[in-house]
Amino acid sequence: MRNFITIEGCDGVGKTHQTRLLKQFCEENGYNNMVFTREPGGSDIAEQIRKIILDARNTDMDDLCEAFLYSASRIQHLKDIVKPALEQGKVVFCDRYVHSSYVYQGLGRGLGLEKIVLLNEIAVGEYMPEFTVFLDLNPENAFKRKGGADKTDRMEAVEQAFHAKVYQGYKKLIAERPECFEVIDASGTEQQTQMKLREVLFRRGVLR
Ligand code: TYD
Question: Minimal CA–CA distance to 177: which of 138, 142, 129, 110?
Answer without folding.
Answer: 129
